[in-house]
């Protein structure tokens, strides 16, 4: 079982926090690394596109899940 850990990030000059389980954090960091962008930049992108009713932590989890599913679908299609 992975415990939730609270982390802080600065987005567009504003300090905020998000809480993620370690596996989500590791995958998020890997996605940022694969795009060669800072983790804070990826989080800022997620924050900018999330529905306002969704909190940042949930939006990050959904983003990670969507990206993992997208990558898996590409592998299943033989790409």
From TrEMBL:
Species name: Pseudaminobacter soli
Top-level lineage group: Bacteria
Residue ranges occupied by any Ribbon-helix-helix domain in the UniProt entry: 5-67
Protein's recorded name: Ribbon-helix-helix domain-containing protein
Gene3D superfamilies xrefs: protein bp1543
InterPro entries: RHH_dom (IPR027373), RHH_sf (IPR038268)
Pfam families reported for this sequence: RHH_4
């Amino acid at each position: 079982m992975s415990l939730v850990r609270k982390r802080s990030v600065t987005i567009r000059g504003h300090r905020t926090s998000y809480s993620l389980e370690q596996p989500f954090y590791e995958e998020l960091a890997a996605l940022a690394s694969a795009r060669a962008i800072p983790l804070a930049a990826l989080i800022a992108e997620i924050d900018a596109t999330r529905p306002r009713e969704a909190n940042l932590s949930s939006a990050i989890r959904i983003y990670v899940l969507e990206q993992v599913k997208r990558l898996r679908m590409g592998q299943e299609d033989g790409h």
